[in-house]
Write a structure and sequence with these properties.
This protein is mostly beta strands and 177 residues long. It has one domain: PCu(A)C copper chaperone (Immunoglobulin-like, Sandwich). It is 11% helix and 47% strand. Strands 1, 2, 3, 4, 5, 6, 7, 8, 9, 10 and 11 form an eleven-stranded mixed sheet that branches. Strand 12 and strand 13 form a beta hairpin. The longest helix is centred in the first third of the chain and has 20 residues. It is globular and about 45 Å long.
């Protein structure tokens, strides 16, 4: 019975990892980037954000150390944190991608900020983002732009159906320190 339970648990973990990974968009070294997406921005909006799932099939952790895109003047790695009862967005130096633990970049969590947009991100368009990893190197991902209130690629939340009653958030703007 214990052997059956261990085998079932192992199969469920493998399926969950594959499900979390979603549709592969790019691979560099042992890192796969899946389900990249962004939200459309309003005319004149200064900033946007980019989301995806990074999966590491290697034996050692790696880190996203920078990102760049021709659609923005500046691109930063960010997270949201609760401070004094308020959700605040803050830059981070790197985003760790551990083996077997998908790094989920999504609204309200880790994400890539596109600051100083050169033009609005329009629903249905695509733009490139280059992610640089400490060990694996650089990879460029084509990012499809979803509707303004999207919470995931194609109505999904990073590959998972959106929970019932979930209200999508509004435009993503940086908070002042």
């Amino acid at each position: 019975m214990k052997l059956f339970s261990a085998a079932l648990l192992s199969a469920l973990l493998a399926a969950a990892t594959a499900f979390a990974q979603g549709k592969p968009a790019a691979t560099v070294g042992s890192i796969t980037i899946a389900d990249p997406w962004s939200r459309a921005t309003a005319p004149g909006a200064a900033n946007g954000a980019f989301f995806f799932v990074a999966t590491n099939a290697g034996g050692e952790a790696d880190r996203i150390v920078s990102a760049s895109s021709p659609v923005a003047q500046k691109v930063e790695l960010h997270t949201h944190r609760h401070e004094d009862g308020v959700m605040k967005m803050r830059p981070v130096e790197a985003i760790e991608v551990k083996p077997g633990e998908p790094a989920m970049l999504r609204p309200g969590g880790l994400h890539v900020m596109l600051m100083g947009l050169k033009e609005p991100l329009k629903q249905g368009s695509r733009f490139p983002v280059t992610l640089t990893f400490a060990k694996a190197g650089a990879v460029t991902v084509e990012v499809p732009v979803q509707e303004a209130g999207a919470m995931g690629p194609g109505g999904m939340a990073n590959g998972h159906p959106m929970p019932m009653g979930h209200a999508p958030g509004g435009q993503h703007q940086p908070m002042k320190p």
